[in-house]
Amino acid sequence: MATTTPVKTTNLKIAKELNISFEGLSYSAKVGFLKRHDKKVLKNLNGEFRSRELSVILGPSGSGKSTLLNLLSGYKLKNISGVIKVNGSPRNQKHFRHLSSYVMQDSLLHPLLTIREAMRFSSNLKIGKEMDDVEKKIRINEILELLGLTDMKDVYTGKLSGGQQKRLSIALELVDNPLVIFFDEPTTGLDSSSSSQCLQLLKKLADSGRTIICTIHQPSALLFRMIDHIYAIADGQCIYQGSCKNLVPFLNELDLVCPESFNPADYLLEISTHDYGYQNGRLNEKIQHGMNQQYRKKLSINDKQTDQQQVLLLPKIETNPISICVKKAKFSSKLQIFDPKSYCNDSDLYSTSFLRQFHFLLIRMFLLISRNPSMSVMRILIHFVVAIGIGLIYNNVGDSAKNMMNNFRYVFYSVMFLMFTAFSSLQTTFPLELPVIKREHFNRWYSVRAYYVSLMIADIPIQVFCTVIYILITYFMTNQPLEFFRFAGFFSVNLLVCFVAQGFGMIVSTIFNVKWGCILGNMIICPFLLFSGFFVQLKHAHHLLHWLFHISFLKYALEGGVYTIFGFNRGKIECDDDEELNYCRYSYPNQLLRDIGMQDCPKNSTTNCDVYMYENQKADFSKVICILILFTVVFRCIAYFIMRYRLKN
Ligand SMILES: Nc1ncnc2c1ncn2[C@@H]1O[C@H](COP(=O)(O)OP(=O)(O)OP(=O)(O)O)[C@@H](O)[C@H]1O
C-alpha cells in the first residue's frame, strides 16, 4: 500500500501533460492515375513536441507541414512508417483521440447558428451528464471570455470575421479541455493584428499545460518571437528543430549568416527554397533528421513558475475523457505508466451516449432547417404545383374506362415524380456538410451512426408532408376510387418509393461530390426506370435482361401503385359516351392488368379467374411492400457504410 499512492500521483500528473515524439517518421502518397507510384512526402523525421510549449511546424509551401500535422494528430493513418509516441509509449490512436483536438485550416462552422448555440451544441455533444447545464454555461462563458467572444454570443457564426471564426473554432474544441491541440495554419487569412492575437491565444493555451502544435507557412518577425519551439521542414526533411533564439546561431554554424535586419524565419524559408544554393541536405545532416536536441529552449526555473501560475487561466481538466478514464483507474494498482488503453474501453471513445448524440444532432438539424426554410418550402411548393398540374392533365381519368390507359400513366408519373424529387432531396446535404462533419466526427463530437440516423430522421416529416400534398391533390383531382384502403395503399407505396429513392440518393451523395452526384446520379437511376415495366414488359424482354427487372425497385413500386388503383376486384367502370365504340376494353380493370403484364389468369385454372387474381394481387401487394421496405433498409445501410468509410479515411 505504501508504494501505490506516490505512483498514482506521479502518473496522474504525467497524464495531464503530454509530450509527443516521433522517430523515423516517413509518409508516402500514392500518385498517378494509370501508373500508380509512391511519392515520398515525409522522409525520416524525428522530433518531440512538448507540453507547455507553442510548437510551430514551419516550411515552404508543399514541404509537408500539413502532412506531418495530419500524421501526428492521427488524421492520416495509412502509408506511414516510423513510430509516434505519447509520453514515451507508442501512440494508441483510439485513446489518443480522447486527448486531442484538431482545429482545421478553414473555420468549418454552421453559419446559421449563433456563437452561443454552437458552443451549447459542442458542450452537449462533447460532455456527458457528469456536468450539469449550469456548470457547462459557466465553462462556456469562461472560454468565450478567454477568446474575446463574450460580446458576440448572439451573432450568427456566418457573420463573424475570419479571425473571430478562427477563435470560435478554437473555443468549440476547448469545451472538453483537450490536452493536445493541433492547428493547421491558424493565421492564414488573418491580418497581422489578428494573427498576433491568435498566436497569443495559442501561447496562453500552451502555458496552461497543453501541448500546442500548429503549422505556419511564413510567420512575421513578431509572430516568430512568440514561438517556443520551431520544427522546420523542407522537401519532406527536417532542416531545423529548436528554439527561435537558437535558429540564427544554428545557421551561423553552417556559414549561413542571417542579416541583422532580416526576419530569421524568412531567411530560413529562402534557404529552404534554394535561394542560396541547395542547403537542405546540410541542414538536415546537422540537425540529424531532427534527433539533435541541442538547439531546444531550456526552461528556466522562473519560466516554470510562471507556467504553473498560468494553468489557472483555463478551466481545470475535469471532464476530459481521460480524466474519466483516470478516475476509473484510481483504484487500479497497475497505474505504472501512461497507457489509457489499460483502463479506457472502446465505448469511451465518445464522451456521450448514442442517444444523447442523436438527440442533440436532431435538434441541431431541425434548428438549421427552420433557419433556412427555403429548401423545404421549395420542395413543398414543387409538390403542390406539380400536383395541381397533374391533376389538371389527368382530370377525372380515374373513373372512366375509356381513360384507363391514361390513368395507368398517371400512376406511373406519380411514382417517377416522387422518386426523382426524393432522390435529389438529400443528394447535396451530405457532400456540402462533409467538411464540418469530418471535423466534428474526428474531434469525437459524435459517431457516424448518430449523425446518419439523425440526418435520416430529420427529413422524414418534410418528405411525408410533400408526399401527402401530392397524393391528396392528385388522387381527388383525377377522381380515383374513394375507398380508404386504396388511398392508403397508394400513399404507402409512393412514400416507400420516396424512402428507397432517398437511400439511393444517399449512396450517390456519399460516393460523389455535389457536381458529379448531380451529373451521374440521374444517369445511374435511369436503368431502374427502363426496367420498371412501363416501357418494356418483363415477358417481352430478352431473358438475359430479366434480372434487371427484378432489381428495379421502380418495377415493384409501379406494380404496387397499379394494384391499389386497378386491382382488388375493382368493379365495372363506366365507359362514358363514346358512341363510335360499343365495345369498351377496360370496363373491367382486370383486363388492363393483363394487358400491361401485371396479372395473368392461367388458362387451365379451375377456380374463378377473378377470385384467382384477387388472391394473387393481395399476395403480390404484400410482397411489393416488403420488397420496398427491404430496398429502403439495404440502400440506407449501404449509404451508412460508405459514409463511415469516407469519414474514417
Ligand atoms: N494524399 C496525397 N496524394 C498526393 N500528394 C500528396 C498527398 N498528401 C500530400 N501530398 C503532397 O505532399 C506535398 C506536401 O503537402 P502538404 O499539404 O503537407 O504541404 P504543406 O507544407 O502543408 O503545403 P502548404 O503550406 O501549401 O499547405 C505536396 O506536394 C502534396 O502535393
Structural write-up:
Belongs to the ABC transporter superfamily. ABCG family. Eye pigment precursor importer (TC 3.A.1.204) subfamily. Helices cover 53% and strands 10% of the residues. By secondary structure, it is an alpha/beta fold. β1 and β2 form a beta hairpin. The protein folds into 2 domains: 346 residues, Rossmann fold (3-Layer(aba) Sandwich); 260 residues. The strands form 2 sheets. A 6-stranded mixed sheet has the order 6-7-8-3-9-10, with helices on both faces. Strands 2-1-4-5 form a 4-stranded antiparallel sheet, covered by helices on one side. The chain contains 24 helices and 10 strands. The structure holds adenosine-5'-triphosphate.
List keywords for this structure.
649 residues, alpha/beta, four-stranded antiparallel beta sheet, elongated, disordered N terminus, ATP hydrolysis activity, ABC-type transporter activity
Task: Produce the secondary structure layout.
Elements: H1 4-16, E1 20-31, E2 37-49, E3 54-58, H2 65-73, E4 80-86, E5 89-90, H3 93-99, E6 100-103, H4 115-126, H5 133-146, H6 162-174, E7 180-184, H7 192-207, E8 211-216, H8 221-226, E9 229-234, E10 237-242, H9 247-252, H10 264-272, H11 280-286, H12 301-310, H13 321-329, H14 354-371, H15 374-393, H16 404-425, H17 429-442, H18 448-477, H19 484-511, H20 514-530, H21 546-550, H22 553-566, H23 589-595, H24 609-648
Parallel strand pairs: 3-8, 3-9, 6-7, 7-8
Antiparallel strand pairs: 1-2, 1-4, 4-5, 9-10
Helix pairs in contact: 4-6, 14-18, 15-18, 16-19, 16-22, 18-19, 19-20, 19-22, 19-24, 22-24
The structure holds adenosine-5'-triphosphate.
Residues 29, 31, 39, 41, 59, 61-67, 217 line the site of adenosine-5'-triphosphate.
